[in-house]
Amino acid sequence: MGGEFGGASTWVTEFASKYRYRSLAASAVTTSGAIGITGASSTFLLLTMLPRNEFLDYGWRIAFYIGAAVAVVGVLIRYSLSESLIFLEMKRMGTLREPALEVLRREWKKILMSALSIQFAGVVSVVVSPYALSFLNTENLTRHLGLPSYFPSLALAIASVFQYSPPFWEAYWVT
Amino acid sequence: MGRRSTILLGAILTGISCFPLFLAINSGDPPLIILAFTFVVGSLQLGYGPMSASFAERYNTRTRYSGSGLSYQFFSLIQGLIILLVVSPLVSEFGTLSVWPYVALTGVAISLISVVFSLLVPETKNANLMKN
Q1: How far off is chain A from B70, nearest CA to CA, in Å?
Q2: Which member of A26, A102, A173, B22 has the lowest number of beta carbons within 10 Å of its beta carbon?
Q3: What does R_g of chain B's alpha carbons equal in angstroms?
Q4: Which of A41, B84, B78 is nearest to B70 (CA)?
């Protein structure tokens, strides 16, 4: 997602602004990241099934070709999207969007509070992925516990199924 | 439920899940470890879901694109700073095997910050997005 988040969340939320489940629609923005990661890891998994020298020779390139194709599809979709009605209405009334620096200067409080309110979502990257995994990976610990070496990745893969959960939570709780 | 209470619940559950994660790892019981990982990721995703709608709804149309984008970028920036300035020094100070209580405590602290700030942001479930 990265730099696309602002545009994507704005577009989806504005487009669905009259729809009761607009938060369900907007949660697709965050879930799309998980779909991308699953797609990328499955592609990589399939490619590593190739014989080793073939993987090193041309196999890894296939993933890049697929990535390029996905990017082209993304661009095509983007060109075929229309602006949200809210934006068109604002444009008609002569209201233009403001540059990011101006928004930062004027809304920094709101921006900072928003960023801090969601900070717990970083626990996976602050605690789980770098640390809990390396803790579990520490060779003597895994051996001491008698667990197979693939166990840490397996545990995280099972837990990662929940990365697809936001739309379900949205549909039943939030709206 | 609304956005704010869901984010709040996600933050509370994530905070609660940090210590059990390491206790489960220490117990060495595979199903328990998987359950603990699932608990962390599940609670976190519960609160993460409403983020895109609620970030976009907090700003008026003039500032929405930049406001929502900057909120997300600052979230990542602060997260990176915590890893760089808190977690990494802790790991090099205490070593991978004995640092876990401090890392879990960092997770709890981050979640507490979120609890406080999610109480301070407005509920925007029924916000009218046509505002200037």
Answers
A1: 7
A2: A102
A3: 17
A4: B78
Encode A137-175 in three state secondary structure: HCHHHHHHHCCCCCHHHHHHHHHHHHHHCHHHHHHHHHC
Q: Which of B125, B123, B86 is nearest to B102 (CA)?
A: B86
CB contact under 8 A, B75 and A115: yes
Which of A28, A129, A110, A127 is closest to B48 using CA atoms?
Answer: A28
Kindly state the DSSP code that residue B121 receives in the 8-state scheme.
Answer: S
Q: What is the pTM of this model?
A: 0.83
How many Å lie between the alpha carbon of A62 and the closest alpha carbon of chain B? 31
CA dihedral sign of residues A39, A152, A163, A31: negative
pLDDT tens-digit profile of A116-125? 999 999 888 8
Please give the ipTM for the structure prediction: 0.88
Chain B contact set for A150 (CB, 8 A): none
Q: What angle do CA B43, B48, B51 make, to 5 degrees?
A: 155
Neighbours of A24 (CB within 10 A): 22
pLDDT digits (tens, 9 = 90+) for B84-117: 999 889 988 988 778 889 999 999 999 999 999 9
Size of the A and B interface in Cβ pairs below 8 Å: 288
Integer Cα distance of A123 and B114 in angstroms: 11
Contact B34 A155 (CB under 8 A): yes
User: Rounded distance, CA A62 to CA A41, Å?
Assistant: 13
Searching chain A, which residue's CA lies closest to the CA of residue B68? Answer: A6
CB contact at 8 A, A65 and A43? no
Searching chain A, which residue's CA lies closest to the CA of residue B116? Answer: A117
d(CA B66, CA B71): 8
Q: Give tens-digit pLDDT for A49-68.
A: 888 888 888 888 998 999 99
> Which residues lie below 8 Å from residue B14, measured CB to CB, with a gap of 6+?
A120, A121, A123, B40, B43, B44, B47, B107, B111, B114
Contact indicator for B100, B91 with CB cutoff of 8 Å:
no
